[in-house]
Specification:
Elements (H helix, E strand, L loop, with lengths): L18 H18 L1 E5 L2 E4 L3 E6 L4 E6 L13 E9 L2 E8 L4 E2 L2 E2 L2
Antiparallel strand pairs: 1-2, 1-5, 3-4, 5-6, 7-8
Length: 111
């Protein structure tokens, strides 16, 4: 007697029904978590939280895209440095400092 097992029908992405929805929900939770713990810091001024965060997952890598608003209290040359901070990323904190003098174009801060 042979036993045959069949998989549920695949959707257009090759994933089985239900998997896409679970992956989308997991990505959405990760996006929201990153949005809550990420800021641009400027010395002596309020930090700027992102407007949006989205994760792009492939078989070999994960990429996070952060979108920050153009605020009325904008980043200026006088800030000299901006630090991108993702805190509480597991047990670690990710920080990347950017010197604004390296972001000048035609004597103005590139936007």
């Amino acid at each position: 007697m042979a036993c045959e097992r069949t998989a549920p029908p695949a959707n257009g992405n090759g994933n089985y029904n239900g998997e896409d929805n679970e992956d989308d929900q997991r990505r959405g939770r990760m996006d929201q978590r990153l949005k809550q713990v990420t800021v641009l810091e400027r010395k002596g001024r309020d930090p700027i939280p992102p407007d949006d965060v989205s994760m792009e997952l492939t078989a070999n890598e994960q990429t996070a895209h952060f979108t920050f608003p153009r605020v009325t209290d904008a980043i200026t040359q006088e800030d000299k440095e901006v630090t991108f901070v993702v805190s509480r990323l597991g047990a670690a904190t990710l920080k990347a400092r950017f010197s604004l003098k390296n972001m000048m174009y035609k004597d103005q801060l590139a936007q």
